[in-house]
Amino acid sequence: MQDLGAAFHTALQLVATGDPAMLRIVTLSLQVSIAAVGIAALLGLPLGALLAVARFPGRQALIIGLNALMGLPPVVAGLLVYLLLSRSGLLGSLGLLFTPGAMVLAQAVLIMPILAALSRQVLEGLWEEYAEQLRSFGAGPCRAVPTLLWDGRFALLTVLLAGFGRASAEVGAVMIVGGNIEGFTRMMTTAIALETSKGDLPLALALGLVLMAIVLGVNAAAQGLRDAAARSAG
Amino acid sequence: MRAPGTGLPLVAERLRYAAGGVTILDGVSLTIEAGPPTLIIGPNGAGKSVLLRLLHGLLRPDTGHIAWGGPAAPRGAPRGAMVFQRPVLLRRSVRANVLYPLGLAGLGRAERARRADAALALVGLAALADRPARRLSGGEQQRLALARAQALAPELLFLDEPCASLDPAATRAVEEIATAIAAAGTKIVMTTHDLGQARRLAGEVVFLHRGRVLEQAPAQRFFAGAVTSEAADFLRGALVW
């Protein structure tokens, strides 16, 4: 209990004084996770929409595979990206290992299946409703994909939030490919892990509280945005 | 409004369609000529909606074929539009709903806007153009679906029981719009199980019973005296199934 009280005190102090080290960590965490969500969405949402509308051999297997990958352990995602970016890896020449770019890539790999699988589920219901009418208009599956993505935009915002939550909360992937280098690749989660193992529990807890506050804020903002947009667009 | 020349008549020959082992249509031959509306009537389960979907190209017949027989018979893209029993509206504004299929049809921006405004004026929804489409009442939604189909300037407009879930006032509005569209030269093919509606709108009647066309005749002649006993029973209001 003492730890928790001290943690609140430290958290408030960190936020109130605008501790530059903490600000750097928070900023980097947000940048990396938002970039990862952006990249994963670019691939995952159209893939999900395509899986919702198209019928082809192997579709069911692909869906099962994506659903299984939703549970991909972050350390495994990190390891795969590590192998890809290591000096002998396929993308080793880019020199991305132990940079924020590597962390973005690892988180994107981690959450892309989540975005694809969830958007497939959300958009399949919409497609069931739209399919006959769109075919009557002469729109094929390829034309239906952007239509579904736009008309399902409010539901997809929730999907993006799920992806952001997963990305900002994971520690294994960014630890492996980022290396937790102070001032360069140290994130909220890797800092918490480090402070915990150093025994500075109040600081670790304080960072955890700040992280939760950020995630809460992002979700509240997105929900507000969604409600406002839904009110005006039906 | 429309390109000169017509793809009509639409000729269907010996259509057969089964789903899940149940034969829904069997040996349906039908010619849809230009002119006043053709009403496909018959009891529930006669296969009216399936026949409409086959004619529109949403379903493929198991056997038989459908072809445009006119001098300007179109290739590839169907020249039909369809309004469904329950309108499927996009989660967009009223106006965007009308613009969407016009964009798919490859029309230019100015032409799309012109047609959309004209269609919304026709159905009396111009004032609601910026509202979210799905906030409209049931009758307004069906009128929007009609505007959306009419804006495409189709040769053939299929209406599948468009008034089945509407109250009398909304039904009347839909019938007036359909009449106006037909008067402007679009051929309407419509299903209904409402005899009163068929009497009000039909130029020609196709009587469908258990997956077969039992009669196709000008409306006056059909209502004056049906030839088959099934159609006569249906007209008398006996329970036909």
TrEMBL record, chain B:
* Gene3D superfamilies, per database record: P-loop containing nucleotide triphosphate hydrolases
Provide the alphabetized UniProt keywords.
ATP-binding, Nucleotide-binding, Transport
- Boundaries of each ABC transporter domain copy? 10-235
Q: Does the keyword Nucleotide-binding apply?
A: yes
Record-level Gene Ontology MF annotations: ATP binding; ATP hydrolysis activity
Q: Which family does it belong to?
A: Belongs to the ABC transporter superfamily.
The name this protein goes by in its record: ATP-binding cassette domain-containing protein
